[in-house]
Amino acid sequence: MAIIVDGNNLAQQIYQRLAAQVRTLMRQRHTPKLGVVLVGEDKPSQTYVNKKAAAAKKIGINFSLTTLPATTTTEQLSKVVRKLQQTRYGLTGLIIQLPLPAHIKSGKVLELIDPQRDVDCLTQTNLGKLVSGSYWLTPPTPGAILTILQQHKVLLKGKRVVIIGAGALVGRPLANLLIHQQASVSVLNKFTDHVEAYTKTADIIITGVGKHPILTGKMIKTGVVVIDAGVSFIDGKMYGDIDFPSVAKKANLVTPTPGGVGPLTVAKLIENTVQCTIKRYNEA
After folding, report:
1. So what CATH class is 140-262?
2. I need a labelling partner for 244 at 20 to 30 A (CA). Which of 6, 68, 210, 266 fits?
3. Residue 32's closest CA among 13, 49, 57?
4. pTM, rounded to two decimals
5. Of 94, 112, 173, which is closest to residue 139 (Cα–Cα)?
6. What CATH topology corresponds to 29-114?
7. pLDDT digits (tens, 9 = 90+) for 15-49
């Protein structure tokens, strides 16, 4: 039976460390402040924003939420993003909650975020640094995955890693991070044939698709490490990408959903906010 990762416990360890850093910053009169822009009334997005707000406030980070109607245009949202980054708002971290309504040009809006406030690491500047290896911020979900692997002493050098999903939030940035760790990485997308040819030989499998279940116990070898970073809702219940019971019977280490990658992703986002605050004031 697999070791089941306790993402909540790992997240609490991060919060304890960050709370001490925030207290130090406050004594220096440097206030971390995270701003989130939420467009529309997507229920999962509202849930995620509430979790971010609670985590920020828990360790003493100021939090502000700007809500806009689903009818907001690209130009209107762009104006709001520019305004929020003016000095008087004091933001040290800024998030545009994704996904945005389909009519909004997400890439155009994301590029308006100051890279030193880009705690989601979605600007071209920060993504470019990730590719080159000169990054100082790690995207929250890939950062959460690396934390799990490190805390459980999972070796990456030379290991065969299969990432299912090539999205901008998980698959693509994670692949670059793992390559920097000298892992042998395969990234699968919806056009990949013979998926089991990859998964049955993998030492580590990471999913980030949001479709349940795309990975079952029949598709993996005994002793594999499986990290499930996908989220989907079926009849109001949260699921990951994997068939947890069958995968857990064969894996050496596995993450549950909920309670696995999710809590750590929020913690890494808050960590990025603190890092942005430290960098801003150290360079002032």
Report:
1. alpha beta
2. 266
3. 57
4. 0.94
5. 173
6. Rossmann fold (3.40.50)
7. 999 999 999 999 999 999 999 999 998 888 898 99
